[in-house]
Amino acid sequence: MAEDDRLVVTDAVRIPRFELNETFSASGGPGGQHANKAATRVELVFHVDRSSAFRHESQRARVIERLGSPVRIVADDERSQVRNRSLAEQRLVDKLRGALRVERRRRPTKPTRGSQRRRLETKAQRSELKRQRRRPRPED
């Protein structure tokens, strides 16, 4: 049985690796001769609009709305190209999971009787404190 060569985002979304465009370049920054010679920086580009990874069009639309069609990830944290590639893939997965997440609708609730009473009590205390700070009136 052949190993599945897809990047797992969720149970429903799995990206075939051939849909990921990888570009390697020198990472720059400190590192001396190694940084100048080795192409360890990884740029990963994933075109959401062309991908076959989404089962439902609503998923594709949600990702495009939140991230845009080409999702671009750059990793140059490590000295190794292999580690940077896996970092970039993990960042892509995290971004896509976040974009696919559907927020729960908030169910409106009323304040409890106790919380209303406490709010009015603290409001009355604050009002009394401010009243005591005022200058006394001539008739007082």
Rg from Cα: 28 Å
Number of helices in the DSSP assignment: 4
Question: What order do the strands of the largest sheet run in, or round the barrel if closed?
Answer: 3-4-5
How much helix, percentage-wise, in residues?
40-55%
Helix/strand order: EEEHEHEHH
Alpha-carbon distance between the two ends: 94 Å
Number of strands: 5
- Poorly predicted runs are none
The major pleated sheet works out as: 3 strands, antiparallel
Under the CATH scheme, which architecture of the domain at 6-100 would be assigned? Answer: 2-Layer Sandwich
What's the CATH class label of the domain at 6-100?
Alpha Beta
CATH fold label of the domain at 6-100: Double Stranded RNA Binding Domain
Mean pLDDT: 89
- Class from helix and strand fractions: alpha+beta
Question: What is the percentage of strand-forming residues?
Answer: 15-25%
State the shape: elongated
